[in-house]
Q: What sequence folds into this?
């Protein structure tokens, strides 16, 4: 079980697909990997709808070796995220950062144990431009 004081990272991901996936689709995909279901705590669909993934008290499956100290949000898409998605991401990150003020906001690609480029934009710069986590 994740404890609020253990959350050190708020991690932004992308689905790396062009599909209009939902949290339910990702849940099914992750079950197919043999996981305990969806690895993210939130999913942001193309229309900006935020769908629940794992509860925030449940350890995620989204950043190898960092799941016990992070929450993950996934944008559906690869590089072309809608304005509605980015506004929803702003809302999610502001909410999470208010609850976990000591947590660092970063992209999946910012972790040393991945070769992924996910979420395919500089999360730290994007947050700085919007005044999130400052």
A:
């Amino acid at each position: 079980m994740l404890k609020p004081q253990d959350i050190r990272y708020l991690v932004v991901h992308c689905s790396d697909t062009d599909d209009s996936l939902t949290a339910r689709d990702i849940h099914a995909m992750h079950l197919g990997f043999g996981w305990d279901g969806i690895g993210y705590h939130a999913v942001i669909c193309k229309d900006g709808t935020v769908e629940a993934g794992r509860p925030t008290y449940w350890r995620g499956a989204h950043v190898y070796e960092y799941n016990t100290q992070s929450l993950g949000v996934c944008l559906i898409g690869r590089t072309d995220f809608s304005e509605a998605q980015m506004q929803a991401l702003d809302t999610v990150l502001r909410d999470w950062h208010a609850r976990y003020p000591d947590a660092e906001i970063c992209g999946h690609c910012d972790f040393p144990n991945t070769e992924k480029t996910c979420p395919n934009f500089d999360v730290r710069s994007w947050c700085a431009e919007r005044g999130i986590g400052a």
In short: The domain at 4-130 is CATH 3.40.80.10 (Lysozyme-like). The chain has a mean pLDDT of 94. The CA atoms of residues 107 and 123 lie 5 Å apart.
